[in-house]
């Protein structure tokens, strides 16, 4: 399900809008994921505080959004552009790739709540495809 | 057996009392057909589904959205026994409609996004978690009669 030029334009336009509230979106998406899909907490047992607004959540949400921003910039070549991030997730973090979908859904729910008029069905499908491709690129080094 | 907290029960009932079944149902189904186009395979009799605009303005899609929401309302009214409430619906989806049960999750995700867009700030993480739990129970109940 590769990205068409139309998809890429839609993703870039959406991200330009979202970028103004990036830190808030990141923290919110991550916090939501840990609450709504509790199995994801297993990856954060080393954090003392998983509650919304906690310091690790805020900084990590920021980090993840920076990663997505990098992916938007490299949208024409995700599989090679995200190799370093893939190696991180594959060898160090060892996150089960099924969780990429879960985080993607969490991000989209936050975007839908914050930007309801922008997250139209057409934009949704483009962004869902994009996040699927990002997940694929992140899985590149797993095996 | 599903155990609902008072907050979860109140939250789920509150969401369903606030949303317009026609509007939300139509938005959720059409979003599903647009974002996951392979789901269109189940709607061969619905006519024009060629593009997003056609799907969004299709009256059969809108009518079906309402049917789905009314089905979900049955679950809301029978939170203590969704499994039994949906036994017939599960058989219907399995034997007559022959819907791949993985699609239930896709529609659930689209419905969540539509509800989030409607409720905005009020769709807090806690409300979201309760809604997700409700959807998980519904999906599990709909899968139950598949063999």
- Helix count, DSSP H or I runs of 4 or more residues of chain A: 7
Mean pLDDT of chain A: 95
The quaternary state of the protein chains shown equals heterodimer
Radius of gyration of chain B using CA atoms only: 15 Å
Largest sheet of chain B: none
Instruction: Return the structural class of chain A.
Output: mainly alpha
Q: Largest sheet of chain A, if any?
A: none
How much of the sequence of chain B is in beta strands? under 5%
State the separation between the terminal residues of chain B, measured CA to CA. 21 Å
Structure description:
- The complex is a heterodimer of chains A (143) and B (147).
- Helices cover 69% and strands 0% of the residues of chain A.
- Chain A contains seven helices and no strands.
- The two termini of chain A are 21 Å apart.
- Chain A has 143 residues and is mainly α.
- The longest helix of chain A has 19 residues, at 55-73.
- In chain B, helix 1 packs across helix 8 (125-143), helix 2 (21-35) crosses helix 4 and helix 7 (102-119) packs antiparallel against helix 8 (125-143).
- Chain B has eight helices and no strands.
- Classes of the chains: A mainly alpha (143), B mainly alpha (147).
- Chain A binds chain B through residues 28, 31-32, 35-37, 52, 105, 108-110, 112-114, 116, 119, 121-122, 124-125, 128, and chain B through 30-31, 34-35, 52, 55-56, 109, 112-114, 116-121, 123, 125-126, 128-129, 132.
């Amino acid at each position: 399900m590769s990205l068409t030029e139309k998809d890429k334009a839609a993703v870039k336009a959406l991200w330009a809008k979202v970028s103004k509230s990036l830190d808030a979106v990141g923290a919110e998406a991550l916090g939501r994921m840990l609450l709504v899909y509790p199995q994801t907490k297993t990856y954060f047992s080393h954090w003392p505080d998983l509650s919304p607004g906690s310091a690790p959540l805020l900084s990590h949400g920021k980090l993840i959004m920076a990663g997505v921003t990098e992916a938007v910039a490299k949208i024409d070549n995700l599989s090679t552009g995200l190799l370093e991030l893939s190696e991180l997730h594959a060898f160090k973090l060892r996150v089960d790739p099924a969780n990429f979908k879960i985080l993607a859904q969490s991000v989209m729910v936050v975007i839908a709540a914050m930007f309801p008029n922008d997250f139209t069905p057409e934009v949704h499908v483009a962004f869902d495809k994009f996040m699927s491709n990002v997940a694929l690129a992140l899985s590149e080094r797993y095996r | 057996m599903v155990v609902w907290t008072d907050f979860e029960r109140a939250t789920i009932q509150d969401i369903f009392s606030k949303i317009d079944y026609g509007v939300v149902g139509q938005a959720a189904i059409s979003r599903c057909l647009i974002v996951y186009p392979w789901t269109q395979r189940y709607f061969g009799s619905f006519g024009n589904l060629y593009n997003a605009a056609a799907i969004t303005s299709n009256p059969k899609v809108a009518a079906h959205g309402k049917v789905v929401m009314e089905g979900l309302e049955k679950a809301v009214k029978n939170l203590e026994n969704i499994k039994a409430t949906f036994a017939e619906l599960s058989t219907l989806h399995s034997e007559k409609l022959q819907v791949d049960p993985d699609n239930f999750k896709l529609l659930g995700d689209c419905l969540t996004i539509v509800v989030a867009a409607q409720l905005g700030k009020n769709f807090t993480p806690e409300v979201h978690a309760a809604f997700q739990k409700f959807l998980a129970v519904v999906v599990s109940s709909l899968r139950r009669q598949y063999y």
